[in-house]
Each structure stands twice: as C-alpha cells, then as structure tokens.
Amino acid sequence: MVLPVCNGAAWLGRALASLVAQTWTRWEALVVENGSTDDTARVAAAAAARDPRIRLLRLPTRGLVPALNAGLAAARGAWIARLDADDTAVPARLERQVRFLQAPENRGIGLAGCLVEFGGDRAAQSGYARHVDWLNTLTTPEAIALHRFVESPLAHPSVLFRRELVDRFGGYRDGDFPEDYELWLRWLDAGVRMAKVPEVLVCWHDPPGRLSRTDRRYAPEAFFRLKAPWLARELRRAAAGRRILVWGAGRPTRKRAAWLEAEGVRIEGFVDIDPKKISPALGGTGRPVLAPGQLPGPEAAFVAVYVASRGARELIAADLEGRGYRAGRDYLLAA
Description:
This protein is an alpha/beta fold. The two termini are 32 Å apart. The mean pLDDT is 94.
C-alpha cells in the first residue's frame, strides 16, 4: 500500500486504522510523508510503532509524484495498492481485489479498482458526487477503455495493480497534468486491461483542501491537454482513413479540438444540433458544421464527441448508435 501524505495528521490515523482492520493480513503500508508542517510524521511514527507492517518514509520536500514514486520504489510486494490519507478502506478491500486479480478468468487484467462511496456533502459538492456516480458505472475492461477519454475512469485511492506494470510501462510522471489520469491513459494505450470489483470497498472523502480542488494540474483544461496526444493516437488507429468529425462547434470545443490538431489529427468538420451554427464553412476554419441528419455513414466518418454535459453526451451516443455508429469502432466520447 502506497500512501503519500502532506499535512494529513487530522485524517491519517483513520486511514491507517482501516488498513489494520483488513481481512487480508499480508500487507505493508508505505506512508510517504513529504514536507508536512503539522503532526503527520508523529501520527505515522506512532502507528508504525504499533504495527510493523506500517513503514514511514520521510521526504524533505513536498510533491505528490516524488512521494508516489518513492513509495513504489520501496514497496516489496507483487501487488501495489493505493490509498490517500483522507480516505478509508472497508475491511475486505484488499482481499477482494487480490482474489479478483488471482482468479483464473482475470489473469489478463493488470489493475483492479472498485466502487467507491462518496464521502462528502452531495448537495454542496454535487459535481464531485456525480463524478463518483459515473465512475461506479464503469466496471468492465471494455467500459473503462471506451470511456477513458471522458474523464479519469478510476478513483486513484481505490486501485490495486500488478507491480510488473511499473517495471514494464513506468511509474508516475510529473507535469502540469493529473498524475493518475496520465498513468491510466499511458497504460491503457499500452494494452493494460483494467476492471473493478463491483463492490463499494473505499470511501473517497472530499475535504475542501484536496489537491483536485486547489491545484491547477487538476483543472478541466489540464485534463483536455493531457488526453489530446492519447486521443490522437486512438483516433488514428480507429478512424483507419475515414474522415474525422468533431461533435460540438462551440468556441470551447474548437479550442480543445485544436490540441488534437497539434498532434497531427486532421479534423474535416464539426457536428452540432444548434441550427444557428450549421454552416458550409465555420468562420475562420473553412470547415463545415453539419447537422446530425447530414452525417455520412460510419463507413465514411469517425466522430469524436467533445460535448461535456453528461445528459447531452448520452443523447449524442444514442443518436449515433441509431445511425449505425458503434462506440470505439466508429465514435469515441471525448469530453
């Protein structure tokens, strides 16, 4: 278990107690303390004194990615699990995930997540709550792979993966992007199959100061920039010479689609339901904006859906399916 922490004294004891209560007892927890100014190190040291399976590593400076990679380097097992200091695992978590990956029918799966409980105020943090609800619908390797360009398809503190994946495809990378999403995209692109145990095994708490709320690396535009090269690679593979169209003709969509073009993707046109946007040549681009009824068949076009609204996204997918398009083969949800 790799558990990086900075100034997490208020929650760390609760997280470690949930590990001590695990029914799978052959675990070690690497608590990687990096630059805390509160009592985090003292809480971790006290827990390590009580349970030798808990090991405290101290880094002199802050930084989530260096802490994660230090934990990976120090880990001694064949399985790597993740947990954050403000999250908790149910007692059966590790046992369920290890047994899942050990099952003969799952030998080809490299990473097992699980369903997660939203540990926050659903009214005040409705966006994050909806994200958790969406995450929990993605359990199979096929669903995770198909939806990987929408948002990050896994809750980082809920995963357990085979150590060999780090050796083969590398660990976490630092940059102006969410480090976990970059890892999933890179591993999925390399052919790693990911699935989830269809049980709630982790409570994913949502305190106001969590990095995903305060760090620019987790802003929406950072996600779009990050996924552009991986989406471009998939579009080139899947489109197989067909025209590439982007569903969505608004200014934000065109800005995000420009990152695809910077990766060498030629966008032949846009699709939009707004009659005011339908045009034989979108201003400044020279490319048409088609109404859905003007779409060519899937034998001639591949569609990247860049509409972010979840309700609209499902309606667009249903429209495309009704026209004979199939997810992954003829279109991808990308926002």
